[in-house]
Predict the structure.
Amino acid sequence: MAVTIADVAHAAGVSKTTVSRVLNTRGEVDASTAARVREVINRMGYVPSSGAVGLARGNSRTVGMLVPSLTWPWMGEVLQGVVDTVEAADFGLLLFTCNRGTESVTRFTSQVSARAFDGLLVVEPENTLDMLTALHREGLPVVLIDDRGHHPEFPSVTATNFEGGASAARHLLADGRRKPLVLTGPARFGCVRDRLAGFRATCGEHGVGVDLVVEGDFTETDGRRVVRRLLAAGREFDAVFAHNDLAAVGVMGALRDAGLRVPEDVAVIGFDDIPMAPHTEPSLSTVRQPMREMGETAARMLLTRLAGEEIPTAPVVLPTEMITRRSAPAG
Amino acid sequence: MAVTIADVAHAAGVSKTTVSRVLNTRGEVDASTAARVREVINRMGYVPSSGAVGLARGNSRTVGMLVPSLTWPWMGEVLQGVVDTVEAADFGLLLFTCNRGTESVTRFTSQVSARAFDGLLVVEPENTLDMLTALHREGLPVVLIDDRGHHPEFPSVTATNFEGGASAARHLLADGRRKPLVLTGPARFGCVRDRLAGFRATCGEHGVGVDLVVEGDFTETDGRRVVRRLLAAGREFDAVFAHNDLAAVGVMGALRDAGLRVPEDVAVIGFDDIPMAPHTEPSLSTVRQPMREMGETAARMLLTRLAGEEIPTAPVVLPTEMITRRSAPAG
DNA sequence: CTGAAAGCGCTTACAG
DNA sequence: CTGAAAGCGCTTACAG
C-alpha cells in the first residue's frame, strides 16, 4: 500500500542505497542520478517510514514531554512554546501525564525503555525527581521546565523568582503600602522560598516588616479562604502579594465580599500572568513569568543536546516582569 | 546498551520466537517455560523497542492529535481527556499544531505518510477540512472533535449547540428578559448557526423577537468593542447571549465601563464554561460544553476503530448544560 | 510446545 | 559514483 524505498529504487532503476543517499543528501551521488531519483520520489509521493528510519538509525527524532496536568492555566503557553520549537526542528512531540500515581509513572518509564523518544522535557510532577534523576543517569537527555527550586543534576530553565518577589515589593512600596500580606505557595517549593526571600529583602531595605506570611496551596479557593479568615481575625494589611494568579483571584474575591476595595483599600499582586489576569475585575497586576519562552528555551536546549552538543547544567534563568494593571497601580 | 529480545532469549535459553510468544501472551507456550522467560524479562528489565515492534507489526500504537492552538482556554480540558484515555489504553500521543500555515500543513501530512501514528484526533484548524478528508479517504482513521458544523464524512463528536442556544434563551426568558442581544461567533461555523437557531426558536415560541444579532470573532476585545459601539448608538438590550465565554468577558467589561450593572441592567450568558468563568466579576452564567468528555469520547472512538471495530460516522453529540452563576441569575 | 528463517523498511560499512 | 549485503529489534508463517 504505502510506497517504500524499494518501490522508488525500482522505479528509478537504482539501488535502495542510492535512494537512501539522495534522501540523506550524503553527496557522493551523481547529480543527474540524484535528480532522477528526486523526481521519482516526488512523483510517487514517497516519505520514509519514521519507524524504519528510527530502527536503522537508533533514534526516533521524537521528543517526550511529561507534565503533571494539562489544565493548569499556564500550561498551554509552555506547551505552545515547546511544540513550535520542536516542530520547527522536524521532531515529533510525544505527550505524557502522570496524574494517576505509581501506575502512570511505571507506564511512563517503560516508554523510556522502549526508546519511544530521544530526550525528555518535563514540568515536574511532584515526587518524580528521583525517577527523573535515574533516567538522566541512565543516559536519557532531560531538560526540566520550572525547576521548583530543587536544583536537579540535569539542565533546567526557570524564571527569576527572587527578583520577581523583589519587584512586587518595590511596586507596592512605591505605592505607599506598608503592611503587606504574603500568601505563598507550598513551602517545599524552592521557587516559593525565593519569591518570599526577594520580597522580604526589598521590604527590609525600606524598613518595612513582613510579618504576615501565610502558606497557601496555589488554589483560588485557598486564597479566598485565607483572606476571609485573616479579616475575621481582625488582621490588617494594605497589600497582598500572592505567589500565583489563581490564589490572587481568590484573594480579590474575598476582599470584595468583605466590602473592601481593590486597590483603594488593599492592593493585590499575583505571579505568573495567566491568560485570565487582564480580565479579572479589577484587572490583576502580576509578576509575569515568560512561560512560552521557557518552553521554547527548554526545547531548544534539548534539541541542541540531541544534536550532540553540550548544554549548560546550571539552571537557565529567564527574566520575570512586573505587569502593572488596576489591582495594584504604579506608585 | 539497551537489552534486546535476543539477550533475553539467550539468558533464558530459548529462541526469540518463544520470548515473543510470552510477551504477546499467545498461549501455546509451556507454563514453566513461560514462567522462566518472564523471570528473565523482569530481572533484566527488558522492554520491547516500540519502533521495532511497530515496524514488524505495521502499526505504531500511537495516536496523533492535531490542534489549531494550545492556548485556547478550553484546549487543556480536551487534551487532558484525550491523554487520559489514550494512556489508559497504552497508546502514545503525538501532538501537532498547524499555526504556521501551509508549511506546517505539509509537514504534518508528511508525518502521516511516515506512518508515525495509526489514527488521528483533530480539533479542526481552519481550512484543513479538505486535507483531513483526503487523509481519511486514503485510509487514515480520523475523529473530529467539535465539528464546527461542517459535517465531515468521518466520525466526529460535538455538543448540542442548538439545544444549548435554546437553554440560554429559556434561562433569560424565565428571568423576564425581553430584549436580547446575540453576539455570535463567525457565521461560517455551523456551531454558531446552530446556537443562534436554537436561541431564536425558543424566543420565537415565547413571542420574543431576536432583532439584535451581531457577528463577532470569539475574542474578548471584539465583545468589548461591539457592546461599546451598540451602546454608543443608543441600542437597547436587557440581556446578552455571547457565543463563547471570552467574548462574554469582553461584553461584561464594556457594560461596566458604561456604568451598567450586570445582571441588574443587563444579564450576560456565555458559552463553553472555560476555567475562568466562575472567577469573573460577576461570575459568568454560561452554557457548558463538556470539553473533557468530548476529548475522552473522541479518543475512545478512535481506539475502538483502531481495534478493528466499526464506529458511527454520524456525529456523536454530547449534552450541553446551562450553568447558572451571577451574571444571569435563574428567573 | 518450540525454533529457524524470512520479512517489516530503512541505513551503513564494505567492496568495487 | 554505485550496489550487494548485513544489521537495527521485533513478529509471524511454516515446519517439526
Residues 54 and 60 of chain B are 5 Å apart (CA to CA). Chain B has three domains: 5-48, 60-159+291-320, 161-289. Residues 4-6, 16-17, 20, 23-24, 48-49, 51-58 of chain B lie near DNA strand D (CB under 10 Å from a C1'). The mean pLDDT of chain B is 93.
